[in-house]
Amino acid sequence: MIEQGKIINQRDLQVNPCVIRMLDTNDLPQLMALQDFVLSLMKSRSFCVPLSPEEHYQIMSGSGESIGLFIGDRLYAVCSILFPGHREDNMARQLNFNDEELLGVAQLELSMVHPDLRGNNLQKRMADILARRAKKNYRYLFTTVSPYNYPSIKTVTSMGLHIAKLCNMYYRWARYVVYKDFIRPLKLDKSSIIQVPNTSFEEQQRLFDKGYFGFSQSRDEEGITIMFAKKLRKQH
Cα angle at 85 between 83 and 86, to 5 degrees? Predict the structure, then answer.
């Protein structure tokens, strides 16, 4: 067991005791059922790339870690991290990391929360747990997020990850590649902030080419805005 506590079920507003623990292969049926259910409710399937049973099995068998939140015996939330090594799907390849750097990468793969428990900040809470664990043995934390998925953008930037690239991945869907260096965190010049709509891909690409990184976001009736700033020349 990693944590225990209480959580509010948004459907009936009841407070329930809950447990967060490591998942193992015995949890695979519940995990797949939760994944299917969460995907069925999504406004856009491009927001989340599901993992196959084989991929989940690999993660739980040593290629990474998966944690789950349970109320009683029922699984309500999952977060997974992969240690990809030199695999082709190592996200750091998108930033041209060398072979040695690739070995220092841990990447957040999947985060799912049952709608009954949304509003409890579970996505960030569980990702933070895995990030703290990964920090002991890995230098870099990576993930990808859809430019249209505001809650996930907000989660990763609040964890200190920076948007480093915009590219097409997974069925040619647009994705931000975001990462964090645990040892030498990126420092940005906040006097150089430029705000760009999340849908202005060409303008964002120009900023990435000039050495800008996305670091925050906002949302109003007109849509999502991403905030960019340049990397400080002197990084301490």
Answer: 150
Rounded to whole angstroms, how far apart are CA atoms 79 and 85?
19
Per-residue pLDDT of the chain (236 residues; tens, 9 = 90+): 999 999 999 888 899 999 999 999 999 999 999 999 999 988 766 667 789 999 999 999 999 999 999 999 999 999 999 999 999 999 999 999 999 999 999 999 989 999 999 999 999 999 999 999 999 999 999 999 999 999 899 999 999 999 999 998 766 789 999 999 999 999 999 898 999 999 999 999 999 999 999 999 999 998 999 999 999 876 55
Against a cut of 0.85, is the pTM above it?
yes
In angstroms, the CA 181 to CA 95 distance is 13
Question: What is d(CA 117, CA 14) in angstroms, rounded to the nearest whole number?
Answer: 11
Cα–Cα distance for residue pair 100/104, rounded to 1 Å: 7
